[in-house]
Amino acid sequence: MYKSDLEAMVGMNESILWRGKPDKKCFILESIFNPMLPFALIWAIIDLAVVGFTFSASGGMLMFILPFMLMHLMPVWIYIGGVIMSFRKHRNTEYIITDKGIYVSGGIFAYKYEMKPFTDLSHINIHRGIFDQWLGVGDVVTVCSHTGYSSSSSHSHSSHGLTICDIPDYQQVFAMVKQLQTDIYADTQYPNDLRPGENHGYQTQYRGRN
Fold this sequence. Notes:
Elements: H1 5-8, E1 16-20, H2 24-32, H3 36-57, H4 62-72, H5 74-92, E2 94-98, E3 101-106, E4 112-117, E5 121-127, H6 130-135, E6 138-144, E7 163-167, H7 170-189
Antiparallel strand pairs: 1-2, 2-3, 3-4, 5-6, 6-7
Helix pairs in contact: 2-5, 3-4
């Protein structure tokens, strides 16, 4: 019996080396303090000031203006809804690392499952934002050979690389992914011996499966 739908995606010939979820406190804080927060605050302050001025000027008109102002506050409601939905998004987010690649699940209402084999990866980076440093967690960012690297932290999954966000053992996971990517890439690129079960040209720990 699988523990999750993401685990069901793992192949029969793969071994799970690590699995985890983002730190909940950091995940929620990053959802609250996102780039939309200043915009939502300014929008709310202006709208509430207008409502207050209208109420003091003509209290009888407030019942007609209030529904319009509630609709006009839509950016604020969208921001608040995003923060509330981040709890559900955290529940649906899971990471699995096998000896073949990285699996990531996420989403709010529609689930999304992604997998990147180590042969597709060209770079592995660590990113730590303000809340990551404060709470002792970090992001492991993987980049494919045909994409660039951006240090901006995001819970959304790139269509090219995958990011393992807000995990406490980010250093160990980084070292694991880096070693697996190096070993498998070297084994794949090695042209001699018709790619034997053991790679005689590089000092790697990876051993092919016959």
